[in-house]
Amino acid sequence: MFESDKIRGKGNDQGGRERIAIERVWPEIEGGKFPIKRIPGENVVVGADIFAEGHDDVTAVLLYRTMKEDTWHEIRMAPLGNDRWVGSFRIEEEVDYFYTVRGYLNEFSSWRKDLEKKIKTSQNALIDFKIGAQIIEKIAKSAVGENVKQLRNWAQKLTESNDPESALSVATGKELLNMIETSLDEKDGAMYDKQLLVSVERKIAAFSSWYELFPRSWSGTPGQHGTFKDCERLLPEISRMGFDVLYLPPIHPIGETNRKGRNNSMVCERGDPGSPWAIGSKEGGHKAVHPQLGTIKEFKDFVKKAKKYNIEVALDLAFQCSPDHPYVKEHPRWFKWRPDGTIQYAENPPKKYEDIVPINFNTEDWGDLWKELRSIVLFWAEQGIRIFRMDNPHTKPFSFWEWLIDEVKQEYPDTIFLSEAFTRPKVMYRLAKCGFSQSYTYFTWRNTKKEFTEYMTELTRGAVAEYFRPNFWPNTPDILPEHLQFGGRPAFIARAVLAATLSSNFGIYGPAFELCAAESIPNKEEYFNSEKYEIKQWDWNRQGNLKDILTRLNRIRKENPSLHITRNIRFCQIGNENLLCYYKATGDFSNIILVVVNLDPYHTQSGWLQVPLDELGIDKEKSYLAHDLLTGDKYIWQGETSYIELNPNNSPAHILRVRRQLRREQDFDYFL
Amino acid sequence: MFESDKIRGKGNDQGGRERIAIERVWPEIEGGKFPIKRIPGENVVVGADIFAEGHDDVTAVLLYRTMKEDTWHEIRMAPLGNDRWVGSFRIEEEVDYFYTVRGYLNEFSSWRKDLEKKIKTSQNALIDFKIGAQIIEKIAKSAVGENVKQLRNWAQKLTESNDPESALSVATGKELLNMIETSLDEKDGAMYDKQLLVSVERKIAAFSSWYELFPRSWSGTPGQHGTFKDCERLLPEISRMGFDVLYLPPIHPIGETNRKGRNNSMVCERGDPGSPWAIGSKEGGHKAVHPQLGTIKEFKDFVKKAKKYNIEVALDLAFQCSPDHPYVKEHPRWFKWRPDGTIQYAENPPKKYEDIVPINFNTEDWGDLWKELRSIVLFWAEQGIRIFRMDNPHTKPFSFWEWLIDEVKQEYPDTIFLSEAFTRPKVMYRLAKCGFSQSYTYFTWRNTKKEFTEYMTELTRGAVAEYFRPNFWPNTPDILPEHLQFGGRPAFIARAVLAATLSSNFGIYGPAFELCAAESIPNKEEYFNSEKYEIKQWDWNRQGNLKDILTRLNRIRKENPSLHITRNIRFCQIGNENLLCYYKATGDFSNIILVVVNLDPYHTQSGWLQVPLDELGIDKEKSYLAHDLLTGDKYIWQGETSYIELNPNNSPAHILRVRRQLRREQDFDYFL
Which of A72, B196, B382, B517 has the greatest number of C-beta atoms within 10 Å? Predict the structure, then answer.
């Protein structure tokens, strides 16, 4: 149907008495094409313009239900003025929800309002009592149960009343008003023409600490390929550090054709292991395990062991192949072929990836291709994996992801997908709309106060906050950003604090991160001797490592619910461009975390912080406690300004838990 | 279908190869539920986010067609960065238009981009020429006519090429690129899933000067009821003043029951004519003419005469009745009845309108009611009326207006409707969305610089500017605003200049306006001895009347196309809160009008105006002419600041035509 037909009223079977207009329902992503995202315990705040012509009062109702329910729960919305209404509901179950809004004309409420005005201006209102009684009688017809009788009683009282005062007290009784509001006739209302969806996922979708490592580097013996068994020994330490997702680069057989040598060299020396992203060899493809890592069974054991340490293993799924992948022979149509009969390898000129051939999603055989790729995800889900980090999703069609994620969730609803897309903003956002639970971001390249403030504002205000869950990575195997190359240990700490407190999801590529590995290929943001192309030996306990700091960071995150949320961030004024300050609080302000980070890794920076006492509900005249959870230091502050000084060589950041009230007993406890 | 089903992909028959995402198409009112508005000669500027995954280039196309056409006109959109595209088309015909957008993946363009990079970095690209040739061959398959052969020629040239330079020059040839773009296969594209509507009306919908008068006051003999014949004598003067719409309050028989006396008195003296809005008596209802005004034939003659003076007569249609209206007996179900058997008159406590009974649109008989009301509009359309000022539309259902306006336009597409709604902003905007061509506004109560700036910004930025055409009235028979009561002649002039230059549609209630009638009921914004309740005698040529100023204002409006538009307004800095300054320019800046108004009717105000030379394209170093079209004064200005001084007793405003370039010959002409 043309839009114009809708405009022209064709196909509109609503009666001529429909009088309610509903506009600007929020949140609504792309006209309701995509769901918003939540986890249990979070609220959905819904706003709408709901109004009718004339002077009649409107009653606005928020409707919501889980996918499993047939009937709506109803919540009265509150007026914000200018015909805007707001209401909210809490996600209780880990299942998708629907929501919509409805508006009613409330003739009774309008009548009562006019009655009050008339009595105030001493007009004779006797006949109006009878009109009110008629309205109540009418509403009684659509009421149910006890209400019918009750409403009729009230109607009778009004009819028989001769005294304005007593009639008015009946008419304005709270109980009557409530009963009227729950008994309004649906025929006098209008429902919004869309039912909007909330995609509900488990908590780890919104609050997670990721640790990425290359299993092959952990044999403990130089030159020897590490195994899943070797990695089991790392679990206690990763768990102690407080990470709850252990993410492994692709674990599949690696191709030999055009295998890359160290530092992405075209010349591959004997023994070079190749890039794990060059997937597939005669030993198998995406459903096989690299023989030197172990067997499927050993992998499953590893996953189970991890679970005992409260660690979930996340797999990297890269939908691309080495030229030796079985698919190349079995499904030549899934690849691009050049005029000389050779296969088209991946390239992004001037860069070439000769060890990798991309899948041609534009193939006429896309139906079979999609099904095969789905079978890969389902295969690993069957092995116990519920978190996937999808490699380069921005080079595959949006429609494919929308379909794939939905299909997998039909069978394994608790599956989480992380989108590894460093590309144009609109593409990254669209992938999130298509169903990715979490997304890589530009955090890695944000450095200045202005950049952080603008970027966090973009991520946490408006539509983006409703469907896009950032996951902040200070480094990845692909990216050693400039500030880490030159900023030394203080820069690593600052970036860890930023990632872990700005975003409720964060991750590091370890142990390169906690060992402050900073050697890059000259003039590039890439690791020298990258682990992508060789087996490395890490001295995990090397002096100066950040393991204890990461441990503290993750404990602070776990213990402070205000850090489990991203969109609650608010920035604070502090008179120094090198100091970034923000706070996060829970809805009831029972947990407030104030973070100050020195963005300059070389020099001590100081400034006067404006503590937003009004927002935090702190009395200007009373003292309050700021407890640095990173260092253990405690400060008693009073008033709106506080002096901050951060020496990057001691600690480049404060993570202050702010206590609103210092009662005597608490003080005592607290200072012990 | 549930939104969720769409999300889940049910009912989606698009192939898996669809790769283009289209988001944030603009303008789009309430998800495309309502049309935007234009007149012939205006442009529609369309923006959209159009993008695909990966690195392939996108070609974005704006499609438009008139309602009468089956095929689309195509316009290439231009990239604005960040995957945003923009294009525009011009409305040529007075007929509704559709528009939408389409995106294509342009494999050729991507290939060419990569080729350039490769050649720049001296990579061997010989095989890429052949790949390019294949792409061209593929496109040739969906091309038509001569293009097929041409494209194949180019493909062959590329295939046979051995020299990077010559191959590159073939690949980057402009002619080839254009041909590719017009030959892209629809299968490689995606079309936006909505066709959006432009409601196109004739010019007077966007640019009009209204004059309202009560015909009964123009007999020329005190106490005698004026007639249409009498009014014919006024036409030359109204035409000389430059008004093009003559709007008459209701011309129907007036009820006698509860007829109001002078000053809205409940006591009606013998001979009191009653309010024209108390429609209907035994002499007829909405399709009858008040016998003392004349006959239908005389009315039609009057309308025809007016046309000779380039004046269109607009009728006021008030869908309400006096208690004596024939409908009350014929269709009792269309009214509300009180428990004592009396009819419910209009009231808005504490105000009462005992001479008027509202129509109950909530009647079960709404179908017949709607048809009867439509027949009223069609009746007057048959008598030659094409402009209607609908009284109190905000007390009738939105769905009724949407239906009525559409129905009338099906038969009389050139009909214009003005919405007389002074009510909540959302309701006023919704009425405009439902189809009203023009709307009353809050202009009447805006006074300060801040208020004007904010209100004009609200009306001319964002969605509102696309569907809402303001009509600014300094006074109406219902409203004599405070600033006119106390500001004297300078206030009247200032308000006329503001109304006539801020908005391309404006109107006055005359001759109360041009005679500066300022006597109000104490502490109310209502006229004392209001013409609504009595026959008045006006001395139209009274000393101090504003007829010549209004004449000049309307001539300035007519001669300067920048004043035919409302949304082109830009405010200028001027260091005095009592001086309001703004300019309007045509798209090509060939016509620039700069207005400065002294908002203080009592004192001379002065300040330094910041002329936005950059925006206006005026050279800082050169002199330019500012010609006051109101007073005839001419100023030669240079540089960004100009001193302004306005004595309200001389002229409270400048209306300056700014000439960008003063060439020697022109100067001469101009200063003669």
Answer: B196
The answer to whether the beta carbons of residues B391 and B313 sit under 8 Å apart is no
Interface touch B8/A34, C-beta < 8 Å = no
Tens digit of each residue's pLDDT (9 = 90 or more) over A562-591: 999 999 999 999 999 999 999 999 999 999
Q: What percent of chain B has pLDDT over 90?
A: 83
Separation between Cα atoms, residue A398 and residue A433, nearest integer Å: 9
Minimal CA separation from A487 to chain B, in Å: 31
Residue A308, both tokens? 């005992």
- Provide φ and ψ at A551, rounded to 5°: -60, -45
Task: Give the residues across from A585 on adjacent strands.
Answer: A592
CATH code of the domain containing A142: 1.20.58.80
CB contact under 8 A, B424 and A51: yes
With 0-12 / 13-18 / 19 or more C-beta atoms within 10 angstroms meaning exposed / middle / buried, residue A502 is: buried
Residues 6 or more apart from B601 whose CB is under 8 A from it? B483, B486, B487, B488, B490, B491, B494, B648, B652
Question: A329 to chain B nearest CA, in Å?
Answer: 22
Joined tokens for residue B277: 């809005």
Q: How many domains does chain B have?
A: 4
**How far is Cα B507 from Cα B276, in angstroms, rounded to an integer?**
20
Q: Count CA within 13 A, CB hemisphere, residue B405.
A: 27
Same structural domain, B32 and B178: no
A189 within some domain: no
A230: Cβ contacts below 8 Å, ≥ 6 apart: A215, A218, A219, A220
Beta bridge mates, A21: A51
Burial class (CB in 10 A: 0-12, 13-18, 19+), B452: buried
Residues of B in contact with A33 (CB under 8 A): 3, 6-7
Asked whether the whole model's pTM tops 0.80, one would answer yes
Residue of chain B whose Cα is closest to the Cα of A430: B21
Dihedral of the CA atoms A519, A523, A526, A528 (nearest 10)? -40
Which candidate in A420, A514, A534, A600 is catalytic? Answer: A420
Could you say which of A563, A579, A607 is where a domain stops?
A563
Assembly ipTM = 0.92
Question: Contact, B452 vs B446, CB < 8 A?
Answer: yes
In this complex, do B406 and A195 lie within 8 Å of one another by their Cβ atoms? Answer: no
CA–CA dist A342, B127 (Å, integer): 11
Residue of A nearest to B84 (CA): A426
Give yes or no: residues A266 and A237 share one domain.
yes
- Please tell me the distance from the alpha carbon of residue A385 to that of residue B486, in angstroms, as a whole number: 79
Tokens, residue A280: 């597939």
A57 is catalytic: no
Query: How many CB contacts within 8 angstroms connect chain A with chain B?
Result: 195
Rounded to whole angstroms, the Cα distance separating B657 from B670 reads 12
Render pLDDT for A168-227 as a digit per residue (tens, 0 to 9): 888 888 889 888 988 888 777 899 999 999 999 999 999 999 999 999 999 999 989 999
Q: Which domain holds residue B96?
A: 1-106+196-200
Q: State whether B450 and B514 are in the same domain.
A: yes
Residues A124 and A21 in one domain: no
Q: How far apart are CA A542 and CA A131, in angstroms?
A: 86
| Residue ranges with strand state E in A53-146 | 57-66, 73-76, 78-81, 84-90, 97-106
Residues B95 and B126 in one domain: no
CA distances A291 to A273, A296, B463, Å, are 12, 9, 61
Q: Which residues contact B349 (CB under 8 A, 6 or more apart)?
A: A114, A117, A118, A121, A123
CA distance B110 to B628: 55
Pair B555, B619 in one domain = no
* CB pair distance less than 8 Å for B397 and A17: yes
How close B574 gets to chain A, by Cα (Å)?
Answer: 32
